[in-house]
From TrEMBL:
CC per GO annotation: dendrite; filopodium tip; growth cone; lamellipodium; nuclear speck
A GO MF term: actin filament binding
Subcellular location: Cell projection, Dendrite; Cell projection, Growth cone; Cell projection, Lamellipodium; Nucleus speckle
Keywords: Cell projection, Nucleus
Keyword Phosphoprotein tagged: no
Species whose genome carries this gene: Podilymbus podiceps
Protein name: Protein Abitram
Domain of life: Eukaryota
Main localization of the protein described in the UniProt heading: other
GO biological process terms on file: dendrite morphogenesis; regulation of actin filament polymerization; regulation of filopodium assembly
Keyword Calcium recorded: no
Length: 135
């Protein structure tokens, strides 16, 4: 029932041969995802995220900045601090060690969240349509 947030394989950072220069979990002057302190079985102290809550900002070598959003409502359980010192793992291993964060949706919402997700086949169809419409 946990959700691991990663970069989609179609994300521009993974497609265009860009190099990631920095990752910043400081969302605003008063909010840093690194300050998230979770304790206990009920995950006390975890920051609550909405679908549109920014998780981090990633800057590439060409100066472009990408804001990565939660895309899911729930409690922020963990952010991957390893990518701060080694941003390349975001590109080298985006689905494993290069994850961005772990979010725990509310129990009563977890079923509707997973039902709203695309299957791998549906995702590939969306990507194919995008490629065809942009060319």
């Amino acid at each position: 029932r946990i959700c691991v947030i990663t970069l989609a394989e179609a994300h521009p950072l993974l497609q265009n041969g860009k190099t990631i220069t920095s990752i910043n979990y400081q969302i605003s002057a008063n909010c840093s995802r690194l300050q998230n302190k979770v304790s206990g079985k009920s995950k006390r102290g975890a920051q609550f995220l909405t679908e549109l809550a920014p998780l981090c900002r990633i800057t590439s070598s060409d100066g472009e900045e990408y804001t990565i959003y939660s895309c899911i409502r729930g409690r922020l359980i963990e952010v991957n601090e390893n990518i701060l010192s080694n941003p390349a793992i975001l590109q080298e291993k985006p689905l494993t060690e290069g994850y961005i964060a772990v979010v725990l949706p509310k129990f009563e919402e977890s079923k509707s969240v997973t039902q709203g997700l695309l299957t791998q086949e549906e995702y590939e169809e969306v990507l194919l349509k995008r490629r065809n419409s942009s060319s």
